[in-house]
Amino acid sequence: MNLMKATTAGIAFCAAGAVSAAELEVTHWWTSGGEAAAVAEFAKALDATGHTWVDGAIAGSGGTARPIIISRIIGGDPMHATQLNHGRQAEELIEAGLLLDITAVAEAGGWKDIINPSSLLDSCTVDGKIYCAPVNIHSWQWIWLSHKAYEDAGVPVPSNWDEYVASAGALEAAGKIPLAMGQQAWQSSGAFGVINVAVGGVELWNKINVQKDAEAAGGPEMAKVFEAAAAARAMAANSNVQDWNQATNLVITGQAGGQIMGDWAQGEFQVAEQVAGEDYTCLPGLGVNEVISTGGDAFYFPKQDDADIEAAQKELAALLVSPEVQVSFNLKKGSLPVRGDIDLSSANDCMKKGLEILAAGNILLSGDQVLSADTSGQIEDLMVEFWNDASYSAADAQAKYAEIIGDAD
């Protein structure tokens, strides 16, 4: 069976069990302009089947939405489908038997042959059973630079991290914020992770995050990472915005030189009708280590008592991975598709850079895939304290970080 036939078979498999149209409540935290445009592609595709997408957007970040989502499922008021990130966020829900096993959908669609990298499907798999449909690859490993800000400052657009740090003085003299940063824990923690990979390298990142090597976390190479994070903290000192997309808007409007943010920022540049390479520059791996992390978003399907609803859930699962939906959604979202067999020749320059890095195999797992929610939360708490207190030294923050890694599960 070829790949296209396998996917068609997957959708047909689910449709065969759907005896009537259903309304499916779908929860997610995609509420910015670019995100809303992307999720509308999912809704349009489901509505075309005769089912109805009932949008359950939750304002705020994933950190705000996930507790609400999990509380509803545990509390007996489950939605029909919900966004979570690839990785360990759904472990307890699966162990409690609250999520639908969609292994048959995945097998009918040939997901093992088309999901790339395979770690995405592995993250949906527990004890040999598949519980989620991966929909994209989102990588944190980017910095976005405003051409207008640099033109106003009279200096060239940087091509790497060192040049970017060196440009901070010229940006400040021109009344610009060197680094746009929203005041939410996940943003500072995520930026730290990007600096970790760019400055420390992939080998060090794997030692700490995958192997939980506390000695490496407290060592001299990691000290360079914390020193770079302290430099970034100083560059972001005057960035007084809350949400990530507000920080992105500072770059779009030329008020800030750059932003360390995942590739979902592309959706905001697209809505603003800005052109990669003309209005803004994107540097994977901060222009130092060109790698992408292979985390992202997946949809899980809480168990229901209604057979018709379950059939519709399985139809939605297959639809999310179908070629047409993968293209339409990811072009709007700015993320990379989870399928390795589709044409994205219409992608912008930044997305093409990501595809080239993915094709070359220069990838690493995301923090969501290797760290428990508890460990991730402790690191976020540390980063909040570190980024918000200029007197918190890099050395002291590193010592606390090494302690957290030493206790990580």
Care to describe what's here?
With 409 residues, the protein is an alpha/beta fold. It folds into two domains: 3-137 and 296-356, D-Maltodextrin-Binding Protein, domain 2 (3-Layer(aba) Sandwich); 142-293 and 371-406, D-Maltodextrin-Binding Protein, domain 2 (3-Layer(aba) Sandwich), CATH 3.40.190. The chain contains 22 helices and 13 strands. The strands form four sheets. It has a five-stranded mixed beta sheet with strand order 2-1-3-12-6, with helices on both faces. Strands 8-9-7-10 form a four-stranded mixed beta sheet. Strand 4 and strand 5 form a beta hairpin. Helix 11 crosses helix 14 (220-235). The protein is globular and about 65 Å long. The relative contact order is 0.19.
Quick recap of the structure?
Strands 2-1-3-12-6 form a 5-stranded mixed sheet, with helices on both faces. A 4-stranded mixed sheet has the order 8-9-7-10. A two-stranded antiparallel sheet has the order 4-5. It is an alpha/beta fold.
